[in-house]
Write a structure and sequence with these properties.
Elements (H helix, E strand, L loop, with lengths): L34 H5 L7 H18 L5 E7 L6 E10 L3 E7 L5 E7 L5 E7 L10 H10 L7
Antiparallel strand pairs: 1-2, 1-5, 2-3, 3-4
């Protein structure tokens, strides 16, 4: 007997947000999941993959609201890791996320973090002077979803 791929999730993940104003920022919780993310049932994803996919959605939505003078960076809470200008994100099943980039001084930086410790703050930093256009990592990461190249569970 062949196993049929499940394309519709019986119980989609819950998300909710409330803003103090009607014209608040666009937020991930109010957007539908990209098809490639929604197609794979949560039970088939590792905690790392599911955290990675949602983080991409948060970064992309944050970047969509930035002007051409700013790029996204992450501030890591609960330690002295500081700020990381995001140049890449990855995951290693079942429970590790990796962040690649540079710190405020331009030093090459990589953070390897267990998902149980994940707590990040997205920040808008002025773009690097030598860059003609701001770097938009969220759009590159989200392209995996749109092209159907999201990692398999």
């Amino acid at each position: 007997m062949t196993k049929k791929k499940q394309t519709a999730r019986a119980n989609p993940p819950r998300a909710h947000t409330v803003s103090c104003s009607e014209d608040g920022p666009v937020v991930v919780e109010d957007q539908p999941l990209p098809k490639a993310v929604a197609e794979t049932p949560l039970e088939q994803k590792s905690p790392a993959q599911w955290a990675y996919e949602r983080l991409i959605l948060y970064i992309k939505t944050f970047e969509e609201q930035l002007d051409n003078e700013h790029e996204v960076a992450m501030g890591f809470t609960g330690g002295d890791a500081g700020i990381l200008r995001i140049e890449g994100i990855g995951f290693f099943d079942p429970d590790v996320l990796t962040f690649y980039g540079s710190d405020g001084g331009g030093t090459k930086t990589q953070l390897i973090q267990h998902i149980s410790q994940l707590s990040v703050m997205l920040r808008a930093l002025p773009k690097q002077v030598e860059s003609a256009e701001p770097k938009r990592i969220g759009f590159r990461l989200a392209a995996e979803f749109e092209e159907g190249g999201a990692p398999e569970g």
